[in-house]
Structures
1.
Amino acid sequence: MNLPKSVTICEVGMRDGLQIEERFVPTDEKIDSVNRLSKTGLRRIQVTSFVSPKAVPQLADASEVMAGIERRPGVVYSALVPNERGAHRALEAGVDELDTVLSASDTHNLANVNMTTAQSLDRMGGVMEIARRGGVPVVAGIATSFGCPFEGDVPHERLAWVVAGLADLGVAGICLADTTGMANPLQVQQIFRQLVPNYPHLAWSLHMHDTRSMGLAAILAAMEAGVTSFDASFGGLGGCPFAPGASGNVCTEDLVHCLESMGVETGVDLKMLVMTATRGEQAVGHPLRGQILRAGPSTRRYPVPDSVRERVSAR
Ligand code: COA
Ligand code: ZN
């Protein structure tokens, strides 16, 4: 396999994860989770979103969370914003980067942010201007990049049109998002191979939901296409409230375990991350879906059963 020496993981559980949880996680617990995540070695954390509190009441405390967290040097703290209002609020709260969102498909964009994709692209100009004045970079997320739960296939020309529009606006990076886990690994690899050479100056990343268990495989396929930046969610939290059938992101612990076992550096302390995910289960009030949380790492060893111990030592 053609693997990179290291990758960057952006932890999105605090935003993508908590936005779909039934329980409102209290602000001090959110702050505690972000602080714990900061200590694991993660270099990018999407802390929250500055969206309408009516649309996503779970993250209505975005400003308070940003104000309460300890800022660890070297960690980029970002937030998701859908419009100019969100960009102003996020900058006031002191984010290091704005992560914008629009969907490649009109239907999901209308359900998510009440605009067509073209209208969202128009509004992005205002967001870019606010970011420029505030001196922070913009990473543009494209939801439903690989398929839409309402419309089905998203034609490549459509995705290419959105990417071109965002590149013209001067975004620093583009994150292709598989909002409801529709993408297969080959498709992900092909799309990156088609798009990246046209925009080599952009920071490309991939945001996979593991709805159909193809998340890790898609990340490996994207790495072979040269992508080295991936979103993931501790415990495997995640899901879009405006996309039917959405479920959790690729789990950060599972991704770190997979990559590190192949010698690809993530900079993340797996043990600390697992402990943070265990705390996360208490915060949301239900078990999380990460595999390493249950199975432990592959280096885990069990006591030899009495029934075979003698035979083993006699060998
Ligand atoms: N932050 C806080 N409030 C906001 C806001 C923002 N970024 N943008 C708009 N609002 C408020 C307006 O002030 C207005 O409030 P009011 O009803 O008290 O007057 C209300 O929201 C409606 O504003 P409007 O500009 O007409 O927006 P809309 O109703 O067309 O909704 C969005 C558009 C984008 C604000 C809304 O759809 C949204 O927040 N979506 C979030 C999607 C999301 O987070 N999805 C999951 C992540 S992908
Ligand atoms: Zn997502």
2.
Amino acid sequence: MPAHRRRGPAARRGRALATLAALTLAAAACASEEAVAPAQLPLPDIGYGAPDSLAAPSGKGSFRLGAASAATQIEDSNPATDWYVFTRPKAEGGMGRGAEFVGDASRGFSKALEDVALLREMGLDSYRFSMEWARIEPRRDVIDEEALAHYDRLLDALVEAGIRPVVTLHHFSNPVWLDDPRHTGCASGPGDDNLCGFGHPEGGPLVIEEMAEHAALLAARFGDRVDDWGTLNEPFNYLLAAYGVGAFPPGKSALLGDLLGEFVPVLRDYLLAHAAAYRALAEADTVDADGDGEAADVGLTLSVGDWVAARNHQPSDDPEDVEARDRMAYVYNHLVVDAVLGGRLDSDLDGEPDLELPGLRGTLDWLGVQYYFRAGVTGDGGLVPVLNLTPCVNGLDFGACVPPVDPTFCVPAMRYEHHAPGLYTVLKDLGARFPELPLVVTESGIATRVGERRAEVVVRALEQIERARGEGVDVRGYYHWSLYDNFEWAEGFAPRFGLYTVDYGSYERTATKGAEVLGEIARGRALTGALRAAYGGDGPMTPEPEAEGLERCNGN
Ligand code: FCB
């Protein structure tokens, strides 16, 4: 049966709503914030030009269709990563933190070459993944050539399949020696076994140096096939989890102590590591593999939220909440890029950059945008020190959590709401704030066990991206998170983000409806009106069947 006829009642409801939205638009002839369907029927196809440069002016108007992953989340057992030590059960000598032991993850190391076939099957033109620093350099300055040979083979296979690699250097994980989660006090100061991590007065500069060396090594070995490099993944999000609340290794909790004194130096060092890596890549990558005039196109990826002003569990227009929302959006969505572009960090988080870091300037060729959730923020009772606000995170509701726009938008496995039009909102906002910076959606997706829901998320994301592009925002691609199910950090294996679902007994990968639909789009280089009618719009989605009381996902 053709895809557009295989619909459940919710998808039909979605189509009815999309149609209604289109008619309303046609009648009113005015732009609505929420509607995505253009004022024509049937829904027009959205065509995609060939993939091209992420950074050069010649790439403007091009579009990539890809998938993303990260090494720690997929690769087989690697005792040299901090996540291994952090999540390994106490009975086996680990720290027993997080929901589950990372163990063999999704066996994405031993199956890496086979997994290229999954990308191929969908006809994707690009794959964003990370190379595990701890695997390449398990001990300080000791390089594992076998690990490099593995990534070398993977790159060959990708290039042969016509799939452009986008390589992330640092995606939420460290070699243990960088900041040993078992010895966060770092009593004896930095040494080869423990550099004490970002933010440490003596260790921080050493970590930055190591990051640059690592970047230079990868560029020298792989620069002939890789042009697109991402230095950091979601700096603010990562640092909050790893150094702010201690949910990720190294497990430091600056937020509970001295936010400015402890957290800001970590952020400063992390950004300096980005700049050092940028320069190292630019110097050591000498081959212009994609012919865009630059051998290395270097960006970083940013976690962005669709933040809503809230009070007493409802959206609010109280100026106190609106200002709290703006402060949250600024710190979470803007501050890092402001600092890198301007060469100045807002070190007291007051909205005005004050700490001169001139080395940051000129170190961003493209910006990755990663969108997952809509969440409330209130100014009523500031849980977060200095910023004087309380966000709704992790379902923790101190009045900031708002009901989802539709109950089916809830993502119970992650306790947040996925609101597709939020992607348009953040792209428009970033496009307006950083008009010179090419954007690419390097991650977006949903934790679900329902293939139709994933297909809806794919189609709706592409519609929202098109809406932003139609209004002049330079967005050059969409990478679905994730290629297949994997280890979702502190949450363990329960959330299923994969286009392919993984059977954790046999490690077999099976295509979901999401993979079928993204594949149809990628192979045809078009999102057809039929697919839009079946999965698109902004109406209710197919529900997550086992989730009772879906409306509780936002903490309500
Ligand atoms: C992002 C991370 C990615 C994955 C998704 C669900 O914040 O970059 O590794 O965990 O969330």
3.
Amino acid sequence: MPAPVRRLDAASTPISAFAADVVAGLTATPKHLPPKYFYDHAGSALFERITQLPEYYPTRCEIDILQRRAADIAALLPPGAALIEFGSGSSSKTRILLAAAKNLGAYAPVDISAQFLQQQADALHREYPKLVVRPVAADFSQPFVLPDAVQIMPRSGFFPGSTIGNFEPHEAAAFLRNAGRILGRGSLLIIGVDLVKDTQVLQKAYNDAQGVTAAFNLNLLARINRELGAKFNLDGFEHHAFFNRERSRIEMHLAAIKRHRVRVCGECIDFRAGETIHTENSYKYSVESFGAMARGAGWKPLEVWTDARSYFSVHVLTFG
Ligand code: AVJ
């Protein structure tokens, strides 16, 4: 009997939480929106396209590192361990680990996009019928409960994609501490971290020639229109992305082309010409600066690998 994939409950994010965050962000100065809301069904599909763009190096570099080091990683995982993935998306990187780690006890993908998560979990279950798959629809930046099946197994975390770069450094440290609490003493965390590099390489990765990243950024306004009944004119905004070297982060903004007003959830939101909504930060670390942050959050660096150009890093940490 193949292990069944447990069905998820309805939407993971209550519409009211989305509405509250949108109103708070758009009435603040400067205006901002949380990047976790990029990933509705349309946004998740656009992000998958980003990962295939010639300019977007992180995914290819990380896959290259994981493929080269899959056997080393598998050897570090305790037999029967549950692999808990934070922000699983299409689980494409997980497949590299699953192929190498034949003795995994379970796989628990945690993702905010419930619909996309369920589809991907079903697909994974068809490919690995013997693997216990327990998807968790949750916002992994908040504390969440692991499925029962996973509680009794040794746990290893997997957090690829440099998603940790979306957090402010103090939030990243808090995430690492929280992950340590959820996974437990002696657990492992395999985490992908994008590295500081040449500004041109960084900026091109977030300003692709096909405009997929622009569409991904603008989808945030389209989502507010769809789900909150607003009437943002997407043609009235431009995608801006640049590297802020002082703060070691890519910033993404949506810039209003001209002065205008939009109603969102009963609030009037006024835009000056050129005013931006800050939609994302993507922090870039050095191997050393990331290791220091991990130590400060209770994790010990065990291993770190990079690709040939040192564009990207995969760290293995152990808690406690
Ligand atoms: C998923 C947060 C790692 O920062 O590179 C890609 C998101 N934004 N292009 C990143 C993203 C624009 C991505 N992370």
